[in-house]
Amino acid sequence: MHTKTQESRISLFMPEENAGGRKIRIYFDGQQLTVPEGVSVASALLMSGVRTFRATPVSGSPRAPYCMMGVCFECLVEIDGRPGRQSCLTQVQEGMVIKRQDGASGLNIPSAEG
Ligand code: FES
Asked: Which InterPro entries would you find in this protein's record (predicted)?
């Protein structure tokens, strides 16, 4: 029977010891963050201590990533001006500007009048 020891418990969001690869800069709600290259936006924000990614449209309650695999849609944020992006499925890029999403993202539907 396998029993977990304290040493065998590893956080899902703890960087690996050899993750000394290149770091890049991203911005979340105007704050500069330095994060590992190659991780998802959700992972980068969680590693940086961000715990609220969006607020629900109805009650405004805070939400954060849950599944980390594109199923729950709890991780929606605005990335480089585009709302409703799943941060768990988006890889961080140098200089990426990310904003917390409050409520439903608006649809930009052009009018028939032009
Ligand atoms: S965390 Fe569930 S879809 Fe992104």
From this structure: 2Fe-2S-bd_N (IPR042204), 2Fe-2S_ferredoxin-like_sf (IPR036010), 2Fe-2S_ferredoxin-type (IPR001041)
- Domain 23-102 matching CATH 3.40.1170.60: the answer reads no
β-sheet with 54-55: strand ranges across: 62-63, 54-55, 101-102
pLDDT-derived band at 7 (thresholds 50, 70, 90) equals very low
pLDDT tens digits, 48-77: 999 999 999 889 999 999 999 999 999 999
Confidence label for 21 from pLDDT (cuts 50, 70 and 90): confident
Other C-beta atoms closer than 10 Å to the C-beta of 51 total 9
Q: How far is the CA of 64 from the centre of ligand 1 (A)?
A: 8
Give the Cα separation of 34 and 95 in Å (integer): 10
- Ligand 1 and 88: CB distance under 6 A: yes
Task: Determine if ligand 1 sits within 6 Å of the CB of residue 73.
Answer: yes
Angle at 29 between CA 44 and CA 47, to 5 degrees: 20
